[in-house]
Amino acid sequence: MRYVEMVLRPDREGFHPAEQAIVDDPDLQRVAIHHLNQLDDGTIVFLYEARGALDRARELMDGHEDVLEYSVSREGSKLHAYIHFEPNDLVDALFRAMQEYSIVVDTPVECLADGGIRITGMGDQETITEALAVVPDSVDVELEAMREYHPDDRQLFSMLTDRQQEILRTAAELGYYDVPRDATYEDIAAELDLAPVTVGEHLRKIESRVLTEILPG
To answer: Which of 15, 73, 133, 143 registers the highest number of CB atoms within 10 A of its CB?
Structure first.
């Protein structure tokens, strides 16, 4: 079985009007999709993670008739949303491609600031190639990696606490691990409303945990 990591970027209209409204809103930031499923009636269910203004998120969901049902709650700096919605043609085509070619999506799906998503799919190489060929033209596909699937690759991340996962993801997004480094503890702390010393402590614990797991012996 092969493991493919790719970025999907829609055109200016986005994947779906309700989601694009979140992308365009300065008071909200998408983080990840933790669960996605197409029901027997063709409608879609997402479990979404975001950051920002709770009332604004609810207001946007109320403003889209394609959103059939939703629930948004806050946990610390995170917003968690259950969203049941009618897919447009683009979303429906993407789900049909996954089902037709038996592509398994490994969650969470990372949401990018430019409106794209970073998605990991699993299947055999031939069906992955065929599925990519039927992605609608309005979506740009950037293939980042394709290799043999090893479950342990994702288990390392799952070993971290929710707080550690959030800090690590934010550090990577802001460029803390870029060369040269583009972010500091202070930048990460400001993004997450934490003290810089707290960010530093968490990152050291994360690095210690990961290195301990990957070093032989």
So the answer is: 15
Residue 203 has pLDDT above 70, yes or no: yes
pTM for the full predicted model? 0.70
Give the model's pLDDT for residue 209: 78
Q: Which of 162, 159, 158 is nearest to 75 (CA)?
A: 162
The domain segmentation of the chain, as residue ranges, is 2-148, 153-214
**Helix 17-24 vs helix 54-62: crossing angle, to nearest 10:** 150
Task: Name the class of domain 153-214.
Answer: mainly alpha
168 three-state secondary structure: helix
Phi, psi of 208 (to 5 degrees): -65, -45
pLDDT digits (tens, 9 = 90+) for 128-152: 899 999 999 999 999 888 877 666 5
